[in-house]
């Protein structure tokens, strides 16, 4: 566990969604106002707006990768895609999938799945681990030494 991953979990537990919690702890490194990242990540929570799609911790991490490495130039896109593939491979190796439905074992896009998730308190018991993993993997592939500086910039 890293200080940043624990901060992300703390933010999640106080009301940020999974994507917001994961991405917002990198705002200073990215030189992006935190409120901008929070707004941009809002729709990714609950597997992209509670559709059960890609886990919000994963999409929040991909948002960070895009902000750090992305751009319209071919080289920036290639670097972004490489980092996204690396992130997805590592997250999947740790957790078996990047799907919110697969990670929770229920589909948040259905009333039944959302009800089960709430009754079993899944977002408070299992999601913190996914947020922690996402932040730690980002630190491994993009910020191996946390210096406050964005590598390559």
Key terms:
153 residues, mainly alpha, disordered C terminus, 11 helices, globular
How would you characterize this protein structure?
This protein has one domain. It is an all-alpha fold and 153 residues long. It has eleven helices and no strands. Helix content is 67%, strand content 0%. α2 packs parallel to α6 (56-69) and α2 (18-24) runs parallel beside α11 (127-141).
Task: Give the topology, please.
Layout: H1 3-13, H2 18-24, H3 27-30, H4 34-41, H5 45-48, H6 56-69, H7 74-95, H8 100-104, H9 111-119, H10 122-125, H11 127-141
Distance between the termini: 27 Å
Rg (CA only): 15 Å
Helical region count? 11
Q: How would you spell out the order of helices and strands? A: HHHHHHHHHHH
Mean pLDDT: 92
- Estimated share of beta-strand residues: under 5%
> Uncertain regions: pLDDT < 50 for 5+ in a row?
145-153
Count of distinct strands: 0
Q: Major sheet, described briefly?
A: none
Overall outline: globular
Q: How much helical structure, as a percent, in the residues?
A: 55-70%
Number of domains: 1
Broad structural category: mainly alpha
Short description:
The protein has eleven helices and no strands. The chain is mostly helical. It has one domain.
